[in-house]
Amino acid sequence: MSAILDIQDVTVEYSTGGTIVRALDGASLAVRAGETVGLVGESGSGKSTLGSLVGRLLPGNARYPEGRVFVDGHDVLQLGVKELRTLRREQLGFIPQDPISALDPTMRIGRQLELALRGLPNDRAALVGHLERVRMREPERVLRLFPHEISGGMAQRIVIAMTMARSPRILIADEPTAALDSNVRSEVTKLVFGLARDAGTTVLWLSHDLRSVGRWCGRVAVMYAGRVVEDGPAEQVLGSPTHPYTVALAAADPAGVQPGERIETSSVDVAALAASFRDEEEVVAR
């Protein structure tokens, strides 16, 4: 089966203060329709840049000197403005880490949801129905509220409702539960994957939570220094990692130790990893 998302040897650089910072350095990732892929790695590894790149949502100081990105056959980096907007609206869905900042503070929730449903049924009953799908309490009341009047958990459910209302073909979720407390986090994660499964949506889930990724994602891709260094079934990558960085990452997972036990982390030979990047076969494919 051909990939619905195909990222090929992409380099992304940011120009800031006269300095060039390389965020992606030959990153590649292919995802088939219907897959649930967890993208893991430390902060600064390039996860968010890669996720935003799928919809060409990077800031204006980003450059793409090398590589290509295909979404369902469309070359994202070459699309015109009109075609790109259509692709984002009809095929892509994004759930950000900070849901409150994703909402317009000057507009009531009902109006924002109505705009997200433009071209689809968006009467009052339809709006209530979409909030009920995400198990929102008192949806009629919530539609009348402004973003500053709701909690973080409510905001995340609203963003999920807006995103999944159009049944996107690909969902990119960038640490979507990081700002939530532990009780809400599990419920929201279950909700997102349930809606995606019902809609047949492909999921790219960016996260630091290895346990959650292992539970909900069928496949895991590990990022380090702007590249995907290991990729394969979640059980194999997280349970029996092969790449030295993945070994270190798994060892540093606090979920793998008993309360009070000291976390023993594996050291990563950065020089060896840098040298391995000069080898075209550095990615461990499982």
How is the secondary structure organized here?
Layout: E1 3-16, E2 19-32, E3 36-40, H1 47-53, E4 62-71, E5 74-75, H2 81-91, E6 92-95, H3 99-102, H4 109-116, H5 124-133, H6 139-143, H7 152-164, E7 170-174, H8 182-199, E8 202-206, H9 210-216, E9 219-224, E10 227-233, H10 234-239, H11 244-251, H12 270-276, E11 284-285
Parallel strand pairs: 3-8, 3-9, 6-7, 7-8, 10-11
Antiparallel strand pairs: 1-2, 1-4, 4-5, 9-10
Helix pairs in contact: 4-7, 7-8
List its traits.
single chain, 286 residues, alpha/beta, Rossmann fold, seven-stranded mixed sheet, four-stranded antiparallel sheet, 12 helices, 11 strands, 36% helix, 26% strand
Q: What portion of residues belong to β-strands? A: 25-35%
Number of helices: 12
CATH class: Alpha Beta
Into how many domains do the coordinates divide? 1
CATH fold topology:
Rossmann fold
CATH architecture: 3-Layer(aba) Sandwich
What order do the strands of the largest sheet run in, or round the barrel if closed? 6-7-8-3-9-10-11
DSSP strand tally? 11
How confident overall, as mean pLDDT? 89
Helix content: 25-40%
What summary fits the major beta sheet?
Answer: 7 strands, mixed
